[in-house]
Amino acid sequence: MRDGKFGFGLIGASTISRERMIGAMNDSGVALPVAVFSRDMARGRAFADEMGIPKAYDRLEDMLADPEIDGVYVASTNERHHAEVLAIAAAGKHVLCDKPLAMSVKQAEEMVRACEEAGVVFATNHHMRCGAHHIAMREIVRSGQLGELVVVRVVHGALLPAHLQTWRINDPATGAGAIMDLAVHDADIIRFLTGDEIVEVSAMSKNSGMGTDRIEDTALAIFRTANGTLGHIHNVFNTPFNRGSIEIHGTMGSLYAVDNMGQSPGGTLHQRDAQGEREIPLQHEELYVRMVRSVVAAANGQGEVACSGRDGLRSLAVALAMLESAQLGRAVAVQP
Ligand code: NDP
């Protein structure tokens, strides 16, 4: 605790921390970024100075021993998450880990188990759950207004900004590619909206000019859920004019969310049914602020995290099944 607020340690002098998460912690009113751990002390110190963070460490164990740190936000490249989360849990600190949680389902299971055994909160930073359109859509689905769900469609594409065209498109060891980067979010939001599990996927992927030979920048999957709903996900790194959208179609109504797949609040939601078409009014809120507040509340025993470690495990399982399906050229069952 620092000034009565939840003290976050950050793992990695990362872009997402610089552009989103440090601001979200500061704006949350309940948390503060207290320290950053970077493998490179000069980079960590410069990052801390730039972002107004009091402390920098270049040994994770030193940051984890800092009594002002209540929890750790993990924003390193994906292959580091597993070992780092195990170390955080062993130190008895709460965890907010970015996606994809790990490189394998087995690793993610170990992370979930370690946090459960340590009695610490484990959240996954699937921020889209915090979007006003998605919260409203989930309520409408739950109310039964759409009838039986038949088809779901998620379009998740944009232009990967030039400063992020690094490991995501050229380093397989990091869990690179559009599927590990984007499809995990889609799998999670589908689970969140439908309350259903994706059980089978059939995927294709390709390079559209940004990825290297071994790493896809474009992917498309069809899927089936446990309740029998069919759906389609599309992920792409190099379509700058792609708006991003979700459609949910049921036997009694349909929902259309547009411009809803980004990191900032905004976008619209329309409902169509026998009464006609109407726009659903939304109270937009900063997505990552909502996520941070949920982690702090859960750590204080006052609620659930917006997205749990188990949720992150499930979204990872779907993305890995997509990768396998694209490679094998056939449908793949998602690891239960
Ligand atoms: P970055 O490439 O910006 O940072 C990743 C790591 O690379 C950092 O933690 C840092 O670790 C290291 N690093 C930073 N700068 C350099 C450099 N100049 N040279 C060498 N290493 C460097 O990644 P992102 O911030 O884009 O992503 C981090 C994680 O967050 C990923 O897991 C990603 O999937 C996730 N993410 C989630 C988003 C969401 O909306 N939920 C959005 C964006 C990313 P260190 O300082 O220890 O060396």
Q: Which features would summarize this protein structure in a list?
A:
25% strand, 336 residues, binds NADPH dihydro-nicotinamide-adenine-dinucleotide phosphate, alpha/beta, nine-stranded mixed sheet, six-stranded parallel sheet, 15 strands, 36% helix, 10 helices, single chain
Set down the secondary structure blueprint:
Blueprint (H helix, E strand, L loop, with lengths): L5 E6 L3 H14 L2 E7 L3 H11 L3 E3 L2 H5 L6 E4 L6 H10 L3 E4 L7 H14 L3 E3 L7 H12 L5 E9 L9 H4 L7 H17 L3 E9 L11 E8 L4 E7 L8 E6 L2 E6 L9 E6 L2 E4 L7 H13 L9 H20 L3 E2 L3
Parallel strand pairs: 1-2, 1-4, 2-3, 4-5, 5-6, 7-10
Antiparallel strand pairs: 7-11, 8-9, 8-15, 9-10, 11-12, 12-13, 13-14
NADPH dihydro-nicotinamide-adenine-dinucleotide phosphate binds next to helix 1.
Characterization of the model:
With 336 residues, the protein is an alpha/beta fold. The protein contains ten helices and 15 strands. It has helices spanning 15-28, 41-51, 60-64, 81-90, 105-118, 132-143, 167-170, 178-194, 287-299, 309-328; strands at residues 6-11, 31-37, 55-57, 71-74, 94-97, 122-124, 149-157, 198-206, 218-225, 230-236, 245-250, 253-258, 268-273, 276-279, 332-333. The strands form two sheets. Strands 14-13-12-11-7-10-9-8-15 form a nine-stranded mixed β-sheet. A six-stranded parallel β-sheet has the order 3-2-1-4-5-6, sandwiched between helices. Strand 1 (6-11), helix 1 and strand 2 form a beta-alpha-beta unit. Helix 1 (15-28) packs across helix 9 (287-299). The mean pLDDT is 97.
